[in-house]
Amino acid sequence: MKLHTNRTGANCRRVAIYLAEKGLAIEAVHLDLSSGELKTPAFRAINPAGLVPVLELDDGSYLPESTAIIEYLEELHPEPCLIGTTPRHRAHVRAIERIASDLGVLTIAAMQHTHPYFAARLKQEPSVGAALQGLVDQHLTTLERHIGDFPFLAGERLTIADIVLFPLFQTCRERMGIPFGAEQPRLSAWYDRFAKRPSAQY
């Protein structure tokens, strides 16, 4: 297998962190997002959406989407288990994972209308940005309630829910200069703990 990826993209970071936590080694093909390579016909043949990560399987087929890649690899390598040990726990992990994934989409959409980085690239509508930011805040509040007093999002153990959410926090805080989740003390403490893990290092 080969992983077509990028070193800093949040979705690519999900897979990189997962591989590190599982102790798995997959050959990586690092792509430059600024070069236009993802828009070429050659790459569009791999993933029509023109996005990374994409996992190239041994049979020559391709699997896109970070969460799909993670769950596929988890099926192949179930130990150590990162998706939950019971049907109820797995459902809980997937529910939080879905909230985290939706939060990522909403956060990017909100930043496109509010962050200076996008001001020269897109027509920004402050009212749209404010409405989207309201949805971002709702999702953060929901995750704050989920984590409660647990060390991880879905309980006492690290799961893919944590792996899906952490790169969003990392990108916002470390690369975009946004105090993402600062009003959620439990999530902030969770982020600080996760940031110390070897897998979280670029």
TrEMBL record:
Identification of the protein by name: Glutathione S-transferase, N-terminal domain
Domain of life assignment: Bacteria
Signal peptide from the UniProt entry: none
GST C-terminal domain residues: 86-202
Database matches in PROSITE patterns: GST_CTER, GST_NTER
Gene3D superfamilies with a match to the protein in the record: 1.20.1050.10, Glutaredoxin (3.40.30.10)
GST N-terminal domain: residues covered: 1-81
Cross-referenced SUPFAM superfamilies: GST C-terminal domain-like, Thioredoxin-like
Pfam (any one): GST_N_3
